[in-house]
Design goal:
With 610 residues, this protein is α/β, with parallel strands linked by helices. The chain folds into 2 domains: 342 residues, ABC transporter type 1, transmembrane domain (ABC transporter transmembrane region fold), CATH 1.20.1560.10; 169 residues, Rossmann fold. The strands form 2 sheets. Strands 6-7-8-3-9-10 form a 6-stranded mixed beta sheet, sandwiched between helices. Helix 2 packs across helix 12 and helix 4 runs antiparallel to helix 7. The longest helix has 57 residues. It starts with a helix and ends with a helix. It is found in: Cell membrane.
């Protein structure tokens, strides 16, 4: 099934009110498991057979002891018969254990397979949902938290079928049927044999719930630890440049010690409660031996019956302890599942409108009509009353002080965010009424952040068009003034880029992103301060190449340096989210306003300061 189809099915809530409850979360996970019905059937049938065979062993051993004792009382001939009976019972027990082992293998294999299929579907849905969530969501969420959620929480949900559903069937058979057999054989010994069950079940459940609570806290502390490491690795050059190693080591040591302290607490909880449960089991077994031996002496029960009781107790010890694990499995699935499904069920801020059609570009006219925008949670609007029009072949420059809303305008055109007022149209089509895929095929932005993937230079340049021929890749890199540099590398375009492009200079990384964008030949091309790290000579050559192709598209240039956009057909000066001046370079200089002041500051800073 395609990832999108999997995501859509998984993300559909079971109801509109109480889906966050643990019960509905567990129900949703169970429905996912049932999507592999034949694996579920084999796992459950194998569990029933394995548990039934395990319960036969005490019965067989008890009968073997009684038969041997009876036959030995018959003298030499009885000894031979006893030996034969013991061999027969031994082979029978061996056969039962081997058969049980085979079905236990089936149980474990297929229950784990079901869990891994659930994990596979959830991972696809989770990753696909992250790709569709808006920039606004990623602005608020730390990537380390998303990674933790997509690994640890998802793993907790994945294990539910084997540790929850299969285990509850197994324990029901072992404890239920085993307890019935004990009580029906001898009520007094049965009650003594089962006397440890309530205490162990209670302590095991309490222990697992405590461990679950501390695990969630440990998970948060490990998430903090991951965040510290991620930030340190991402900013390793800053750390080295400012000799920040002692501070960073102290910060990491503190986070690590917090996690270690809680890990020690978890070990203490587990050891203390395991000792208490083992002691209660041994006390119950001692009582069964004491009372049972008296019954044997009085002839009330046989030695074989007492053997069966002791063997049953040994078999039941582990299932009873697993009651706590069962409680923990349900609690973990409810908790982790709610966190995972909470993300999967988030409403998408940016999505295709019902009945959205592909964007059809003819004249290539981009129009902002009284556009306003406010970031979620912001106290005041970032943009107000932005109106302008750009036609194919025109270059629009946008400049203004930091925080004035320049980059926000660039982000609104490909719908990284949706306008909160007014409209943006391309050839009269509101961009909110067309499909995102078609819009982002026609509108491409070169971001300020020159992000590169850890792969070859060729793959980075051809990211938007993976099947492009080498000639097209070379043309795009030449337009970005990068081809000559790549030609000097021993591996050429096959050279592997380090993590986030660390092996390249800032200017080279920005030229890589420009080349990646030029591969697509969009109808609207946006440069969001994307040549800030490029030297003036290279920027001039890039600008000349782009101008030669400008007749094919609308070009938007957002910049802080006037040299980057003074050639534009029209320049918009943005201040406090509004267009305060507009015109070409000469007109704005003649106006003598803010643009002229900025021009004088950048070109004659000493005179502007006087």
């Amino acid at each position: 099934m395609a990832p999108m189809a999997v995501a859509d099915e998984i993300m559909r809530p079971t109801d509109t009110v109480g889906w966050r409850s643990g019960f509905n979360t567990i129900k949703r996970v169970t429905k996912l498991a049932l999507r592999t019905p034949w694996m579920v059937a084999i796992a459950l049938i194998s569990t029933v057979i394995a548990a039934t065979l395990q319960l036969l062993v005490p019965v067989l051993l008890g009968r073997a002891v009684d038969q041997t004792q009876l036959l030995l009382s018959g003298g030499a001939s009885g000894a031979e018969a006893a030996t034969a009976a013991l061999w027969a019972t031994a082979w029978l027990v061996l056969g039962v254990w081997v058969t049980r082992g085979i079905f236990t293998v089936f149980q474990n294999y297929f229950s784990e397979s079901v869990g891994h299929h659930v994990g596979y579907m959830l991972r696809l849905a989770y990753y696909e949902k992250i790709q569709r969530l808006s920039f606004g969501f990623h602005d608020r969420m730390h990537s380390g938290d998303l990674i933790t959620l997509g690994m640890l929480d998802l793993e907790g949900v994945r294990m539910f079928f084997s540790t929850g559903l299969v285990r509850i069937l197994l324990l029901s058979i072992l404890i239920g049927v085993g307890g019935y057999l004990l009580l029906s054989t001898d009520l007094t010994l049965g009650l003594l044999a089962l006397s440890f069950v309530p205490f162990v079940a209670w302590r095991s459940s309490v222990t697992q719930l405590k461990l679950r609570g501390t695990w969630l806290e440990l998970q948060n502390r490990l998430s903090d630890l991951s965040r510290v490491m991620e930030e340190n690795l991402g900013g390793i050059r800053v750390v080295r440049a400012f000799a920040g190693k002692p501070y960073e080591m102290g910060k990491y040591r503190s986070a690590s010690e917090n996690a270690l302290d809680l890990a020690h607490e978890r070990v203490d909880i587990r050891v203390r409660n395991t000792s208490m449960m083992t002691f209660s089991f041994l006390v119950a077994m001692g009582l069964v031996l004491w009372i049972g031996s008296g019954k044997v002496m009085r002839g009330d029960i046989t030695v074989g019956t007492l053997t069966s009781f002791l063997t049953f107790m040994t078999i039941l010890q582990m299932p009873v302890r697993q009651l706590g694990m069962l409680v923990n499995s349900f609690a973990r699935t409810a908790t982790c599942g709610e966190r995972v499904f909470a993300l999967l069920d988030l409403d998408l801020a940016i999505t295709d409108a019902p009945g959205a059609q592909d964007l059809q570009v003819s004249d290539g006219v981009l129009r902002f009509d009284n556009v306003g925008f406010t970031y979620p949670g912001a106290a005041k609007p970032t943009l107000e009353g932005i109106s302008f029009e750009a036609r194919r072949g025109e270059t629009i420059g946008i400049i203004g002080p930091p925080g004035s809303g320049k980059s926000t305008i660039a982000h609104l055109i490909p719908r990284f965010y949706d306008v909160t007022g007014g409209s943006i149209t391309i050839d009269g089509q509101d961009i909110r009424d067309v499909t995102l895929a078609s819009l982002r095929h026609e509108v491409v932005a070169v971001q300020q952040d020159a992000f590169l993937f850890t792969t070859s230079l060729e793959n980075n340049i051809a990211y938007g068009d993976p099947w492009a021929p080498p000639s097209k890749i070379a043309d795009a890199s030449a337009s970005a003034q990068l081809h000559q540099f790549i030609a000097t590398l021993p591996a050429g375009y096959e050279t592997i880029v380090g993590e986030r492009g660390a092996s390249l200079s800032g200017g080279q990384r920005q030229r890589m992103t420009i080349a990646r964008t030029l591969m697509l030949r969009p109808s609207v091309l946006i440069f969001d301060d994307s040549t800030a790290a490029v030297d003036a000579g290279t920027e001039q050559r890039i600008r000349t190449t782009i101008q030669a192709q400008a007749d094919e598209r609308v070009t938007i240039i957002v910049a802080h340096r006037l040299n980057s956009l003074m050639h534009a057909d029209r320049i918009l000066f943005i201040e406090d989210g509004r267009i305060v001046e507009q015109g070409n370079h000469a007109e704005l200089l003649e106006l003598g306003g803010r643009y002229r002041a900025l021009h004088d500051l950048q070109n004659r800073p000493e005179e502007a300061a006087q």
